Amino acid sequence: MAYRTVLLATAFTLIFPLWAGAADVDYARDVRPILQKHCVRCHGEKKQEGGLRLDVRRRALAGGDTGPAVVAGKGGELLARVGSDDEKKVMPPAGPLADAEIATLRAWVEQGAKWPDELAGKEPSEEHWAFKPIKRPDVPKVSREPKASVHPIDAFIRAKLKDGNLAPLADKRTLIRRLHLDLIGLPPTSAEVDTFLKDNAPNAYEKLVDRLLASPHFGERWGRHWLDLARFAESDGYENDNLRPNAWRFRDWVVNAINDDMPFDLFTVAQLAGDLLPNATDEQKTAAGFHRNTLWNSAASGDKEEFRTYAIKDRTDTTGLVWMALTVGCAQCHTHKYDPVSHREYYQLYAFFNRSENAEARLAGAKEFIPTLKDVTRETRIHTRGNFLAPGAVVKPGVPGFLPPLKARGATADRLDLAKWLVDPTHPLTARVAVNNVWQHLFGYGLVPTPENFGLNGTRPKHPELLDWLATEYVRLKWSRKALIRTIVMSTTYRQSSVLPANTTDPNNELLARQNRFRVEAEIARDLSLATSGLLVPKLGGPSIVPPFPDGLLDQKFGAESLKMPAGDRHRRGIYIHVQRTLPHPTLAVFDATDGNVSCPKRDRSITPLQALTLLNDSVFVECAHALGEVVRKSGDTDGARLRGAFELCVSRPPSERELAALTKLVQRQRELGAKDEAVWFGVARTLLNLEEFTTRE
After folding, report:
1. Helix (H, G, I), strand (E, B) or coil at 48
2. pTM, rounded to two decimals
């Protein structure tokens, strides 16, 4: 091998001047044939050994697991490997390149590694719909109606329907209940239903929408959605699972920011880099607590550096998931198998967060502290095969090359640069992902049914033009969440009936020719019972509560004084229930609530016998049934009047004759068995609160 090195040096001395003195090395004529002959078999479209691909310019420049393959004017892994005298490192494995071929490659790199655009090549994944720039599509023309009378959303939906027709509008009772559940997560009162029914003004529905958007409970409802994405919890996780006594401040920041309609771009910047903003306020530092929602192992036996790297990877993965719906975490150990994110690019993203450490900031004028971050100087290296004990090449903060370039404010990009890059209107993913998440909570399913994955393994949207129109509309509305929601709920598409037609050819409602019907989330099921029974404490914000647990279920987990709330506070909304990672509250867990261990873009909706048993026997639902029973017992002059009023209070509509007859029979049967009056109406209330319709959003 030593002889070969001398020979190579001699050959290069003889050959290189020929290149230097003549025309530049031509990629198509001189370089590409060498790569195709010797390299792309293992580093091409079908196979990328070591995460390296040499038939696509972007990937060649980015390199593989060990570093950049080509560094213009300097070298890179390509030259290092083909010219190596180490038998374990030299490439290609089948045998060394000819000296003239190596000299050609070296001359090409020295001359700037010119690679013409027309031969740059692209990975098939880069042609994926979600990675293309967002262009505002024209609103389809709808026949038979004046264009001005058709809502843009309806026009896009109708354009995909064979007959162009949407389902009939839902009745006013259904609409007011749907809006209440979707926008504030609380049921309408009987008085609110009556007022809406009597309001025959053309803008009655619009006024209802605006009233609910202005409600302080809007922030609680939509804040809970965001907390799922932010993997919010109030304990460390792992074995010790220590409490985080001030974590609730991040939750309250989210609720307040959403109530204030903070534009989504500012909402993003505050959470990803609020601590880096000039003269950062307490609120901005609190917002950066988004990153403090990672798990932390405080056990004495835990390797601090190991779990620090786990936390940084979680921040990297969560940022990629929440704002881009990319499974970037798949590139921790190797280049992504499906999406165009290399192993090296993963650690370039990781580098943004690797410069941060957990910190506490004192609240202005108070003794209390808020969890936040501080930036430090720290070198980032690739973790070979994902192992932090096997450091590879040094990398600097950067973004995947298939996305728009990032503009750094200084010599090295930081989290603030990353945040601004994400909300730049030219970014193809952020606005699409954001509007899809909003749509999901208003229809039960997103336009992209896989909100956790916009990559190649995700599901393509049935209405891609509508998705792009909404994405551009969000930016046009200056990232106003309330304005976007208002736009969607004012459409006929949103206001459709959810009744399944007998002759449907679209049972899964992929084309949205009707609304969807689905069970409400865990916290809302509890909130509905509390509100309907009159027990709900509507107080906003402040430390969390711990409702009663089943007897003996690890009571010591909640021994902290900060969680010993006054008895009445246990009836606050579900968003304020303390989230202990290793012990989710069973009332919520049975209805698929998140545990805060990982980001959750979409909750499960299971149907199990345990849910029915919980609604019947859990202490909070029993309390609600007792309270509602007393309200019903003291209302009305006759059993019929009481039953009608109770039924309407629970499901916002009067009972049918058949339903009323069944309830009347229930009352009579209990009296025949000798039940006292309080027990009779408790039984009625318990029955109504356990109707499937009660916990279903129509």
Report:
1. strand
2. 0.91
